[in-house]
Amino acid sequence: MSRDSFHFDGNPIEFRDGQSVAAALTDAGQLALRRTAKGDPRGMFCGMGVCQECLVTIDGVPNRRACMTAAAKGLKIVPQIAFPVLEDMPAAQKPDPARILEPDVAIIGGGAGGLSAAIAARQAGASVIVLDERKVAGGQYYKQSASHPPLDAQQREGAALLKRAQESGADVLGSVEIWGAFDGPLFLADSEGAALIVRPKTAIIATGAYERPCMVPGWTLPGVMTTGAAQTLWRSYLTLPGKRIAICGSGPLNAQVALELAEGGADVAMVAEAARAPWRVPWHAFAALMADPGLVIKGLGMMRDLHRRGISLRHQTTLSRVDADGESLRATFKTASDEEIAETVDALCINSGFEPQNEILRLLGAKMTYDPAFGHLRCDRDTKMETSVRNIFAVGDCAGLGGAPAARVEGLIAGRVAAARAGFGDAHDLFSHQRRLARHRRFQASLWKMHDISPRTPDKAARDTIVCRCEEITLGDILDGLETSPGHVGTLKRATRVGMGRCQGRYCGPVATRLVAQTTGKPVDDFSNFAPRVPIKPVSIASILAAQEALDDPD
Amino acid sequence: MTPTDILVIGGGIVGQVTAIELAQAGARITVVDAGINAGSTANAGSLHVQMQSRFMRLYPDQVPNIEASLPLYCQAVEEWRRLDAAYGPFELVRKGGLMLAEDATQLAFLEKKAAREAKKGVSVEILDRPALERIVPWLGPQIIGAELCRNEGKVNPLAANTRLRAVADALGVRFEQDHIRTLSAGNRIVAIGDRDTYPADRVVVAAAWGAGALVQGLGVAIPSVAEPLHMNITEASSARIEHLVQHAERSITLKQFKTGQIVIGGGWSAQHRGALRVPAVAPSSLLGNVSLAAKLVPAIGHMRIIRTWAGMNTTIDGASVIGPLPANDRVVMAVPGDAGYTLGPLVAKLAASCLLGQPDHGVIDRYTPARFAV
């Protein structure tokens, strides 16, 4: 069967219906997508629109994310140009008219928590819109596909949840990127070039989390990607990140994705897990078993399946560096006995935990508390999932890592309470929800004690490790900056440019904040991080113009 | 605390340059700064000379003072060039500033303004559309002409602030982070902060909008006002926009750093949240400011805004406040009247000259704090 194609750098690239540009290029073995201002090659990293590394120029328009753009016939794509020429760009087209939405409940994020909240709020009778960045909602846990039927139970569960949300009468809008959140609340978004203005009575923030990398020399090389990015390639687009793969970091996602990719035909060389083996921490394992026997059995099954497939799962083994080795990557690890081992792979997947996507919550002024065990902020919430800002609710991982099952229950609670706040139902008797939530939280607590996601800073000996990918700021640059500008991470940012790039400090920010805390001796708190700023994600000037014209219109 | 000859309150561009000037003369200097809401650290680096239409519209009563200060602005840009040569590079570019007109009324306004400015020694010229197209081919089609002010330019304030701080450090200037609440004048001047007290022989008040409150017990009532302003920055494109772009009637500055990012600002308001919290970005300013830029320079439509922020501008009466207090000559004011970053190094140098016993009366007498004596 002949397939449609687009052009990348002059070469035809075939794609399957529903694939992203990044997935089609990965299938074609094209992992390097651009060169930085300093000339380093970069490729897709996060796979979810956060890192801004997979930028390409599409039909003359610069800085489009390959991971978030659907492949289409005849597109002329070239690697991103670090400094595109203004006169070479096509004239900005008149975008579709902006839309103004004023629902009872606006839900930001259509994952496990958001979709559950939508169903609950609709059942109470409130008008509900769900805004999701991806073309197909479902979130990072359920990862839905635009083209193929569900691969397994997890994807089926997500498909069923999405269907229920849609059938509930909630308006689930895909490809919507929220870039502004203001008091009111007022949300400003971009929907494929058209502006969206949302003024709800109440809002439920369910924006999930993104992955924490292992920051070692070479982590910016094309082919190094987050474990979630590799999972999205496979689950959403049936694309393998490479033929031979290694996975490292800590947490259950790594083992799960190893199995999924192996099932898809990849040769998984190794899963390196930073934590000790569960049989070395039997009390945590026992606590997890008590909280949720089903999930523990699922976890044990994964370890058995890894063994059956001959995939080596090495505990207490961490990534120490990555080097380019011809077309491949050479990943070097350090084992429990301080031994160095190396694997040559096409792709290296890394996940050392998660960072909440709490930008909207912080912008709206919701109070946060630092969780030193997880190394990230948790949003202060009452038992009804309401934040310190009235009528703003937070559910799921954006409020602090908690997992999909907890997110679903939190969504049910927040959906009912937000609807009641808007005048629908009374949100009476949430007891059974609260009890289930407590159980999920007990499981999560023991689960993460079996892994090693404690907040880290890069090895100070490796001064040339890049910390800020966007601005290409090394650990050495930051350590030098700390000598003269130690007071706050904001001062460090102005002195070194750390965090000034397109991803807005999402990867370097937590590390720079920890380095400042180490230097000053002041503990990390709500105000230790970069100040929250709009836009939440880079937004085109044309889209801002469209929003302004819609709001200016007297009709 | 260790002995200090001169305490400088405020560690922005004025405080840093004052400290450098004085330390070079051999004085022991301590700079104390609150570490938040400094105008300089949020500044976007426009070097203004021509009278800003925004300012003329908002503060018509201050226009005579601004107009009288025009030679100071010309001199201030020269001072920036001197600093850039001595301590730079700060990515200083001086290709001039363009104030755009979209209709005949606006152009007529610019013509009159240019004539007034020329009398004060500013290098200005009115350009028609064809003349504009030859130097800036990327303007929107509605622009019919502009005033070009050749004195204007831009610096990268991040580069300038960082390098000047390093210069001060190398000269042994001490930096303290504290929020000074009051000044008390006895045998020595004592600055009382939240964390500590700072006795000094003499004090320089380089505290911008906070200056008035600091000296209110010392015989002057300086009406310094904080004006939180909104800024936007894009991702990088190839550097094509060399001029500082403004508008004859509407609030905007638009320029491009050598590193390619386009900075859009020009006086849209942000929400003041008190002295110890940074101002909040207002959606109406973000939308209005960026939309106006998109209309004036349509070629930037595909570029993305990656960050916005708000910083403090300071207004007083249109003129700077430089020199010793009439009631206490051990307290020296160093506060630019508007466009504080442009005027900052020159105001610092003039204030330092007072402390070094060589005041330039010909320049500073016009800006004396005595005009606010109570």
UniProtKB/TrEMBL annotation, chain A:
Keywords: Oxidoreductase. Residues 104-409 form the FAD/NAD(P)-binding domain. One of its GO terms (molecular function) is oxidoreductase activity. It holds the Pfam family Fer2_4. It comes from the Bacteria. Residues 470-546 form the SoxA A3 domain. The keyword Oxidoreductase applies. Transmembrane segments: none annotated. This is FAD-dependent oxidoreductase.
From TrEMBL, chain B:
Keywords: Oxidoreductase. The keyword Cell membrane does not apply. InterPro entries: FAD-dep_OxRdtase. One of its GO terms (molecular function) is oxidoreductase activity. Pfam families: DAO (PF01266). Residues 5-352 form the FAD dependent oxidoreductase domain. This is FAD-binding oxidoreductase. GO terms for cellular component: cytoplasm.
